[in-house]
Structures are given as C-alpha cells and as structure tokens.
C-alpha cells in the first residue's frame, strides 16, 4: 500500500468516526433539558455542556491550530468552569462548525503532512498522532456524554440490535 493510500484510508476512517460521534453528541444534547445539559453529579465531574465546550476547544487546538496553523486562543480551564450561559443551539452550532472545518483539514492531509512534526499543546507530535489523538479524545468524551444522557433520560441510545447488527435508520455508518 502506498503512503498516500494509507494517508487517505487513515483520514477517511478518522473523519467518519468523528462524524459519527458528533452525530451522537448532537442527538444527546437534543434529548436533555437545559438543566440536565449543565448538571454535574458533583464538583469533580463535568456536565454534558462542559464536555461539548471541551471537545470544541480540543479539536480547534489540535486540528485547526496544530495541523493547519490557524491562530487559536483557547481557555481550556473555562471549558470546565462554565456553569451555564451558553445556549444549546450555540453549543451545537459551534461544535458542528468546528468539526466540519477540522475534518476538511484532516481530509486534505497528504502523507508528508501526516508524518511531519507539530508542536501542539506542549507536545511534539506527528500529524498521525494529532489525528489519532483527536479521534480517541472525541470518542472518549462521546461515551461519557452518552452515559450521562442515558442516566438523565433513561433513553435507550443503542445503535445496534441485540445480535449486534446496526439498527436501520440510525444514520450511523458501521
């Protein structure tokens, strides 16, 4: 397999999974009341809204700033300190716009850009590491958001039937 084909496969897979997770996050945000969206089990935990703010900041820093070199100002502690004040529509719109812009950048990366080194958030990483970090980080917090949404609403958010087959009409790729 050529380096460019490998780069294409990696970025296609990562972009697809991040899109899938973004769709699941938007689904969860839509199921929660405003109070549930910002609620925390205790002071050591985060709300769904805090996690959405955090994911938006992380994707901006690692992809838009890190890989694309756009100037990014991020106040990471503020993502966790917020206790409200950001309307649901704005949370979703900003996440979707950020993910769309980031995936456009990721999908245009060539093999040489994926093996190049970048300084991101104090780490010296390759483009592959940056893409994998964002995918892993996004997936981790998506799982937390799904769990919190299930706990708050009692909704069955499964994308699969009991035999493990993807449910029809979920809009999610396998």
Q: Layout of SSEs?
A:
Elements: H1 3-31, H2 34-38, H3 48-67, H4 76-81, H5 88-107, H6 111-115, E1 117-120, E2 123-126, H7 127-153
Antiparallel strand pairs: 1-2
Helix pairs in contact: 1-5, 1-7, 3-5, 3-7
Give structural notes.
The protein has 174 residues and is mainly α. The protein has a single domain, classed as dinb family like domain (Four Helix Bundle (Hemerythrin (Met), subunit A)), CATH 1.20.120.450. It is 64% helix and 5% strand. Strands 1-2 form a two-stranded antiparallel sheet. The two termini are 24 Å apart.
CATH superfamily: dinb family like domain
- The SSE order reads HHHHHHEEH
Name of the level-1 CATH class: Mainly Alpha
Number of domains: 1
How much of the sequence lies in strands comes to: under 5%
Compute the average pLDDT: 94
Q: Kindly provide the radius of gyration, computed on alpha-carbon positions and rounded to a whole number of angstroms.
A: 17 Å
The helix content is 55-70%
What structural class do the secondary elements suggest? mainly alpha
The profile of the biggest β sheet is: 2 strands, antiparallel
CATH-derived topology: Four Helix Bundle (Hemerythrin (Met), subunit A)
The total strand number stands at 2
Inertia-based shape:
globular
